Amino acid sequence: MPPTMASMRHPFVLASGSIVCAIAFLVPGFAIAATPPTVTITVSDVALTIKPGTVPAGTVAFTIRNAGKQTHTVTIAGFSSGQIKPGLTARVRRTYITPGTLTVRATTTGHAGARTARLTLTAPAAAASDPGRAVFVQAGCGGCHTLRAANAAGIIGPDFDVAKPSVARIVDRVTNGYKGMPPFGGSLTSKEIADVAAFVYASTH
């Protein structure tokens, strides 16, 4: 079953021969990584290649190059790059919370048929190394918050690296919610809340 995702998209902007797409994600599980792995997708009029073919689940930065002479559209697990003209490059970030295999398809404007390739997502090895970090990832905290220790760069809620909240404040906000943040007291155990509070505090002090 393909990984689920949701995003708020901003328009493509042409800049120096490239198409740049800035995307902010609201995805349970991962935020936009500060230094996500980069996957290069190259599409020509006859071929589609992906390098590397395996990356950890989480945020992935895609560089999609049209090396052909015709206009192509690349679709990554249902997300479309839009039409990419010859010689242009589209850069997008997508976040996937579940290890598995993504199907990448390239279609050519005015032509039937498609070329396909596969991208394998492995389990992020670091997610289970700290119980608080695991809660941070699994609860989707990074979808709204920035925290370098979790490779998270959410832009909706406070930047933890700057705010440096106390343990008590973290526990209160996670348990009861605050403004636009939903309460997690009913979905996380007291230990999980304590673990994530300890992780955020230790990572920012």
From the spread of the alpha carbons, the general shape counts as elongated
Fraction of helical residues = 10-25%
Query: Span between N and C termini?
Result: 40 Å
- As residue ranges, the low-confidence spans are 1-34
**H/E element string?**
EEEEEEEEEEEEEHEEHHH
Average pLDDT score? 80
- CA gyration radius, whole angstroms: 19 Å
Count of helix runs: 4
The assigned structural class equals alpha+beta
Strand order of the largest sheet: 2-3-11-8-5-6
Q: Approximately what portion of the residues adopt beta-strand conformation? A: 35-45%
Q: Main β-sheet, in a few words?
A: 6 strands, mixed
The number of distinct β-strands equals 15
Secondary structure: elements and pairs:
Layout: E1 7-9, E2 13-15, E3 18-20, E4 23-25, E5 38-43, E6 48-51, E7 54-56, E8 58-66, E9 72-76, E10 79-84, E11 89-96, E12 100-108, E13 114-122, H1 131-138, E14 146-147, E15 152-153, H2 160-163, H3 167-176, H4 190-204
Parallel strand pairs: 3-11, 5-8, 7-13
Antiparallel strand pairs: 1-4, 2-3, 5-6, 8-11, 9-10, 9-12, 12-13, 14-15
